[in-house]
Amino acid sequence: MNEVFINGKYSGTIENPGDFVKQIKQERRKGVISKNLNVFHDKKSNEIHISTSGGRARRPLIIVKDGIPLLTEKHIKQLQNNEITWSDLVDQGIIEYIDAGEEENALVSFDEKSLTPHHTHLEIDSVTMLGLTTSLVPFGNFNPSARLNAGSKNQKQALGFYASNFPIRLDMDVNLLHYPQVPIVNTIMHEISDYKHHPAGQNVVVAVMSYKGYNMEDAIVLNQGSIDRGLGRSTYYRPSLAEELRYSGGLMDEVTVPDKDIKGFKSEKDYRLLEGDGIIFPEAKVAEDDVIIGKTSPPRFLSGLDEYNLASSTRRESSVSLRHGEKGVIDFILLTENSEGNKLVAVRIRDQRIPEIGDKFTSRHGQKGVIGIIVPNSDMPFTTSGIVPDIIFSPHSIPSRMTVAHLLELIAGKTGSLSGRFVNGTTFNSESEEALREELLSLGFREDGSETMFDGATGLQYKSKIYVGNMYYMKLKHMVANKLHSRARGPIQLLTRQPTEGRAKEGGLRLGEMEKDTFIAHGASLLLKERFDSDRTVIPVSEETGIMGFYDTYNDKQMEPVSSETAEINDIEISYAFKLMLDEFKSLGIYPKLILKNKY
User: Nearest to residue 148, comparing CAs of 354, 318, 488, 401?
Assistant: First the structure.
C-alpha cells in the first residue's frame, strides 16, 4: 500500500502507485486538473506527495514521449509568426512546469542529441541551467564552476548605467560610469535582458604580459592615455537628508543658518556656504565637516521648571555636515514635505572618480585585480601596427584558474572588432574557436592572437610574441577613495576608552596577534608599545590587598577602601580594558587581587 500526502497532509492510500501518478500527469497535461499541481512518487518509503502550495521553485521543460520531444518545427514556426504563444504550448501539454520533487521521477536530457527512449523531458535550452548574471558570461562552458560564480558576482558589482532617470533620483551610494559600452562578445542573454539599455563596462585592448613587476598578484597596468580619453571614469553620488521634526510641547526643528548664541555652534567657516534659507547652493565645492544643511533643534529634556531658566532655553545645533573623508560638489537640491507635512530637505553630492592606483577592475570571468601602476602613453608597449593596449594583464593569472574563456574572449573580441560585428559567446552554443581563428587569419593577423610588440620606453622589440586582443572590462564599485583611511589621534569609546571602530567614525586600525608578531620580527618594539598604549591608564593599587584605589582630593592622598592606613599604594600602568575587566569581576563577587612586583 502507498500513502498519499496532499501538501504534506495524509489523505489516504492507493494500491497501484505507478498508474495513479501517470494518470495525474495525463489529466494535468490535458488541462482537467490544475497546472499548478506537481506529484512526486517516493519509491523508497512508498509515499506519493502531491503539491499545490505556494513558494515552490518550478521550471518549464519540454515533454518527451518515446525519445521524441513533443515540441516540433511546426510549433517553432508558429511561435516565430506570432500565431501561438508560450501559454498555448503549456495549455496543449507540450511544455510543463515541474518542481524539485517531481524532477526526482524525471530523466531530463541536456540537448536533443542525447535523447533516449528513457528520457521524460528535454531542456528548453542548455543555458537555462544558469541564472541571468551567470549567462551573461561569454564562453562560460570553458571556465571552472568556481570562476563562473566569481564572474557572475563581479558583474553585479560593476559600475554602469543603472537607471535613465538618475538625475532626479536620490538613491544611496550610487556610481555611474560615464561612457558605458555594449560588449563585442555577447550572449543570447544580452539580447533578452535588453543589456544595451543598461550596460556596465567598456571594450578595451588587453595585452597578456608582465610589466616590470607592477602587475604581480592579479594587479593590472593601465595606460594613462586611455584614462585621459575617458576609460573607467565614473561619478559617485550620495544624498544627505534633513527634516524639521515636531516635538512635544509644539516645538520644532528649524532649517536655518544657526546663530552664534546657539548651543554647539561650530565656526563661521563651517557655515560659509549656506544661503539665507540655511541650505547650500548648487555646484558648491565641499569638503569634510562643511555644513550643507543648517538646522537648529529645541533644547533637550524640557521640564516644567526649565522654561523659567533662560540658560537652558537656548536651541541646540543639529546641522547636517559632510562625513569624515568625503568631498565633492553639490549636484541637486530637493525641497519637499514628508508624510507628516513637515519640511524635508535633500541634498545630493557628486564626486568625479578618475581611475587611480588601487581601483578594482575585472573581466567577466572572475579575473579581478587592482591597478598596480598607471603608465604614460609613451612608455606603453605597442604592436607593429601601432596599437597600444589599454590594460596589461598578468599571464600568471591564467594557469591556476583555468579561465580559458578569458583567452577565448580576447580572440573573439579581436575578430569582432576587426570585422565590425558582434560575436556570439553564449554558453554551450557559442561560435567555435576554429572559425574565429580562421576569420582572424583572413583579416591579416596571426590566427593564435599573438603579435610582435615593442617596448615603449626603449623602442626595442620584445623577443617573444605577445597575446593581444579586445575584451570587455568592468570597473567595480570598490574604489580606493572609499576605503583609504588613516588616523593619528581621534575619538575614543566611552566604555573601554579604546579608539572607535570603522572608517566613518574616524576609527583606529586594530592590531591583532599576527600584526604584533610582524612588529616583533621587524624589531619595532617602540612602535608596538605605542600601538598598545591606545587605552593606557594609571591606577593606584594597594600592596596589601591588591585592590584598585582612588585619589582623595580632600586629604590630598591616595586611598584604598579595604587597606589599613599604613598600606603602601603604588601607581601602576595598565590597559583601561583590563581595568574594566577587573571591575566586571568585582560585580560578580570575585576578588581580583593584583600582586605587585618591582619592574627591575
Answer: 401
pLDDT in the model for residue 552: 86
467 vs 451: CA distance, rounded Å: 6
Instruction: State how far the alpha carbon of 196 is from the alpha carbons of 142, 161, 256, in Å.
Output: 25, 10, 45
> Rounded to whole angstroms, how far apart are CA atoms 57 and 101?
10
Provide the whole-model pTM.
Answer: 0.84
Task: Specify the higher pLDDT residue, 272 or 566.
Answer: 272
* pLDDT-based confidence at residue 582 (cuts at 50, 70, 90): very high
Query: Yes or no: is domain 2-129 CATH 3.30.2010.10?
Result: no
Domain boundaries, the chain: 2-129, 136-166+176-232+359-475, 235-353, 485-531, 536-587
Q: Please state, in angstroms and rounded to a whole number, the distance separating the CA atoms of residues 185 and 470.
A: 9
Q: For 314-352, how does the pLDDT look when each residue is reduced to its tens digit (9 = 90+)?
A: 889 899 999 888 899 999 999 999 898 899 999 999 999
**CA gap 561, 552 in Å, rounded:** 11
Say what the pLDDT of residue 313 is.
64
What backbone torsions phi and psi does residue 348 show, to the nearest 5 degrees? -105, 135
Which H helix or E strand runs over 156?
helix 145-156
Residue pointed to by grid coordinates 579581478: 368
Instruction: Catalytic residue, from 218, 289, 331, 379: name it.
Output: 218
Average pLDDT, the chain: 91
Q: How wide is the angle at C-alpha 381 spanned by C-alphas 378 and 385, nearest 5°?
A: 100
Report the CATH number of the 536-587 domain.
Answer: 3.90.1800.10
Q: Is the dihedral of CA 218, 224, 229, 230 positive or negative?
A: positive
If you average pLDDT over residues 244-258, what whole number do you get? 88
Alpha-carbon distances, residue 227 vs 204, 370, 377 (angstroms) = 11, 15, 10
Strand, helix or coil for residue 244: coil
| 331 annotated active-site | no
Closest CA to 346 of 171, 164, 165, 175: 171
pLDDT tier at 190 (50, 70, 90 boundaries)? very high
